[in-house]
Amino acid sequence: xxxQPGDSLTSHNFGLQIDGVMVEYLQEVSGxxxxxxxxxxxxxxxxxxxxxxxxxxxxKAGTCTVVRGMTQSAAFNQWINExxxxxxxxxxxxxxxxxxxxxxxxxxxxxMRNAWCSKVEASTVKAGEASALTxxxxxxxxxxxxx
Length: 147
Known about the structure:
Blueprint: E1 14-18, E2 21-25, E3 28-30, E4 36-44, E5 50-59, E6 62-69, H1 74-84, H2 88-91, E7 93-100, E8 106-122, E9 134-141, E10 143-146
Antiparallel strand pairs: 1-2, 1-7, 3-6, 4-5, 6-9, 7-8, 8-9, 8-10
C-alpha cells in the first residue's frame, strides 16, 4: 500500500541508485538542491514608470553529501574509486537518490545527471568504542531533475 492523500514521507527509508540499479541504502543525505541564476533587468514602461523584471537564468550544477554505513557495496566502491582516480569516462554516472514509503515503494526521486564522487571521508575510529563505521561521500552533478 502506497501513501494516501495527506500522508507524508518518513525520513528513514532512502537509497542510492547508479544507472538504475540500487547500490546502497543511506544513513543521511544533505545539501541536495536545485538552483538557477536569476536575471534581473530594469526598463521604463510606456507610462514612464521604472519597472524591474526578473527572468530565470541558467540552471546551476550542484553537490550533495551522503552518509552510508561502511559496507562492501562493490558498485558504489568502484564508482568512488573511478571518480577519485579521475577516470571520468566511466566515473560520470546517472545517479538517483530515491525516497521510499514504508512498503519500500519508490515515492520521490532526485535524478542527478553526470554525477561523480568528489570526496570521501571515513568516520572517526576509536579503540573500544562500539559504533558503526560510516563514510561521508560528496557527490557532484551537472543537472538535477526531481520526479
